[in-house]
Request: fold
Amino acid sequence: MSGRKWQAGGQDSIPARAGLCLIAVTTGSSAAWAGSGSFAPSGYLGDLDPNVVWELLIGSVVVASFLGAIGLWILSALRKAKRSQLRRNAFVSSALNHLNQGVVMTDACGRIVFCNDRYLDIYGLSRADIRRNMTGPELLELRRSRGALDVSPDDFYTRAAAPEGMVTELPGGRSVLVKYFPLPNGGSVATHLDCTDQRQLSRKLASTTQFLESVLDNVPVCVAAKNIEDGRYIFANRAFERFSRFSRDHIVGRHADEIFRPETAASIASADRAALDAPAGYHRSEFVVERGAEKRILASNRVVARNEAGEPEFLIALFEDVTDRRSLSRELENNKKFLELVVDNIPVSLIVQRVSDGGYLLANRSAETILNRRREDATGLTATDIFNPREAKLIIARDEAAIRKRSMVAEEHPISTKDGLRLFLTRRMTVLDDHGEPQYLIKTHEDVTDRRQTESRMAHMAYHDGLTDLPNRAAFLQALTQMIEACAGTDEEFAVLCVDLDGLKEINDVFGHAMGDKVLIEVAQRLQSVARGGVVARLSGDEFGLIIDGKQPAAGIALAEQAAEAFGEDFVIDGKSVRTGITTGIAVFPHNGSDAASLLANSGAALFRAKAKSRGTISIYEPEMDQQIRDRRVLHQELSVAIKNGELSLYYQPQTTAGASAAESSVIGFEALARWHHPLRGFVPPGDFIPLAEESGLIVEMGEWILREACREAASWAVPLQIAVNLSPAQFTHGDLVGLVHSILLETGLTPDRLELEITEGVLIEDLDRGLSLLRRLKALGVRISMDDFGSGYSSLSYLQAFPFDKIKIDRAFVINLGRNPQSAAIVRAVIDLGHGLEMSIVAEGVETEAQLGFLAEEGCDAVQGYLLGKPAPIGQYAALVGGGHLLETVRKAG
Reply:
């Protein structure tokens, strides 16, 4: 204990020890002196013994020497302790000055007691700036004045004392991490670490992490990662969220069995184990998972990620729904990683190359066609290494032009491939680095050879008829315009011929459309032969156009006559002899029109007049024809307005049972007939506006109105009589007829079995299969289907065999001749027997005499219709009939 205190005394104990020695010596001498004899006062020195005096002198010298030695020893010990302290201070100062952190220490009074060199270096200070007794806040103010501190001293101490410290941003982009530690004695220590590089690395790491997460979030396949140790998910991208229908927050931190159903979780666990057991740490598989009520097939890639020690740490799973793509190649799915799979399935050739040296960095499988080698063999090569000198020079020049432009460049050019010279659409895009300098060049090559050939064919088809390969109407108008421009201002004339083929419909009906198409081809060849190199075009189905120059109209008439002679001979096709003829209309430039549209329209007007006269004739345009056409067009416009403005009305003609006399016949229904009362023209006959509506297509809109109005009216009758409505063939080819009938029945409330739809054989002539399909769907609604005007055509029997009609209406032409010639009677009798044999009811139209009615009743006809039984009239005139049962006499009076 005394030893430790001694050591603790240090330099202060040396004088004490010297004093103790001096006291001990003096005490010894006095004792000796006192023991020498008697005591004598100091004034009697002369009486002292000389020996004693010498002893005293010698003792004094000894004491003085001893005291001098003690002093020298004390001085030596002090110097030694001071040198030791200086060495310790120098060591500590050297150690602190060589730290990579700045260090500042203060005492309890806040005065700076130490500041190392690194601190001065960080903040650009010198030793002279640290004056004696400077406090910590004063040092902070000095830094603030020099721009090396961006907060107040109070904020500095508060934030720096936090466990994470405070980061100070210095000029020049440097960052310093400061941590402040108060000491128990009231002092403090602050460390200053230059963390510029660390923060830059952190930012790069954060940016890289964000980039990778962004990439993974935008990858169109599901990506998930889990910790191998506990099997919990640690990452899931957006595709995984969309597929699993769970949010990322719900997925991360959970096991598979907490998210999916047991069967799915078991499949995932099995795939995870297979990946972990695989020697390469990679496993690809397909398994079935349940998502909601459906099962989906997933193609999964699993990769084991290892830490620095090579131990498995994470399991990364990439999977996609391949339920709809099971036909894809299994080999490709098993041998491709995800990024290769994406790139390789791009439907164009993709090549990426460095701008600096033109070396290829990436090429997909499609690019092998361009490179004429495997893509692996092309990596690192340049265009000069791959292509012949001429092609390489051209490719490099185009690449350099795209790099200079720094934007998307697209062009088409031929490239030699193993399949020969192909046309490619090449797009070049330059990718810039962070400094705005070109770094990469991305090129896509799309083979457009077939597309351009198709476009060329389509362009040809746009101006040519697909069957005969003749110019079409658009091309014919262009040729007319060119002829007009060439002849304008001269005395040159030319004629435009509109030629209509006679009998094509009959050929289609008898022999089929295939035969009709072959006839059209032969017709085109004969017209071209007659025209001798002139313009020949197919304007519509059976209408052709020709242009002939020369003295007019003689040259035009001569050409028309030659064409008629050419058609005088039969066409022999597939061993069958077919005869047809032509009707021609002619318009002359410049007398009958100064533009292409006018000339074609006027030649069409002449053709219309020729057909009205007689088939096989030739007609030259005359001005009054134009007036007739204009009148017809005006009537067409007025009919369109009449339909929109509700100027049409419905008349109703009774249909009755076939009694022995009119009085014995009872009403079973009505046929709805359209009537038009023009505000100025008055009553317009149906024979004038119905054909016009058929030709112009207005019959579709008109027929819908007639059907809706007739059903609405019939639904209001107290007596549930039948209502018959005629359907035009045009209604079968435009829109959803079945849907329209269904909606009208629902809208009006009419029961389907009260509606009877009357059709002509024209519905089935154009497209038998489609027509029969629509009729079956209509009949499925519960409505009745009637064959109108039976006997006027020549295909009706085949149609009766193809579709079970509910009713047959005998054409009025046969009924009118009853009693006049035996043939009509025989035909009517045969139709009635035929209908009954097919279990179809028979209605006879055009009954006007009692004799006709009597014959029909005697032959067993089911129903009749005609003026004898009632004329078409507004339903108001038959109000009594639709409100209760009455005899036919009432009907006759109303009619």
Summary: The longest helix spans residues 50-97. Residues 592 and 599 are 6 Å apart (CA to CA).
